[in-house]
């Protein structure tokens, strides 16, 4: 008696054989298809304890790594202090603004975890019709809190 997996494997072999015959036995001329990495792995079944534990452990390690990348409360307070210290006048109403030069200075002082947020692309994304070419400190800080 064959196991369920053996039956599925046999069925797949037969399907491939008949499909290739029907298609004319042509193989794709592009061999790069053979090098495409596998990106989907089925979830382990309940009786596959070792695979379940491996999945749980890898997920935990991934979440720990992502957690270490997040800014903690002290780092956020330091970032806000630096942004406030380097604001560029004049203010628009109650809103503090910062130009690109000061933005880069804050980026240098803010630390390695913040470095990813101090790019020209992010500055440009937050730039809105300011006659002096500045962005809102509050908008930038909110962006960091959402993305970080």
UniProtKB/TrEMBL annotation:
Its main location: cytoplasm. GO terms for biological process: B cell homeostasis; cortical cytoskeleton organization; microtubule cytoskeleton organization; positive regulation of B cell differentiation; regulation of dephosphorylation; T cell homeostasis. Signal peptide: none annotated. It comes from the Eukaryota. It is found in: Cytoplasm. Transmembrane segments: none annotated. The keyword Hydrolase does not apply. Keywords: Cytoplasm. GO terms for cellular component: centrosome; cytoplasm; spindle. PANTHER family: SERINE/THREONINE-PROTEIN PHOSPHATASE 2A REGULATORY SUBUNIT B'' SUBUNIT GAMMA (PTHR12085), SERINE_THREONINE-PROTEIN PHOSPHATASE 2A REGULATORY SUBUNIT B'' SUBUNIT GAMMA (PTHR12085:SF3). This is P2R3C phosphatase. It comes from Ptilorrhoa leucosticta. The lineage of its organism: Eukaryota, Metazoa, Chordata, Craniata, Vertebrata.
């Amino acid at each position: 008696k064959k196991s369920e997996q053996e039956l599925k494997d046999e069925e797949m072999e037969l399907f491939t054989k008949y499909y290739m015959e029907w298609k004319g036995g042509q193989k794709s001329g592009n061999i790069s298809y053979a090098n495409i990495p596998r990106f989907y792995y089925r979830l382990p079944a309940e009786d596959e304890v070792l695979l379940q534990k491996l999945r749980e452990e890898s997920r935990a390690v991934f979440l720990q790594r992502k957690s270490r990348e997040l800014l903690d409360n002290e780092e956020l307070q330091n970032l806000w202090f630096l942004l406030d210290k380097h604001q560029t006048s004049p203010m628009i109403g109650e809103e503090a603004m910062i130009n690109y030069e000061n933005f880069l200075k804050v980026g240098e002082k803010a630390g390695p975890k913040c470095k990813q947020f101090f790019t020209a692309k992010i500055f440009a994304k937050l730039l809105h019709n300011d006659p002096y070419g500045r962005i809102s400190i509050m908008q930038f800080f909110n962006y960091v809190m959402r993305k970080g």
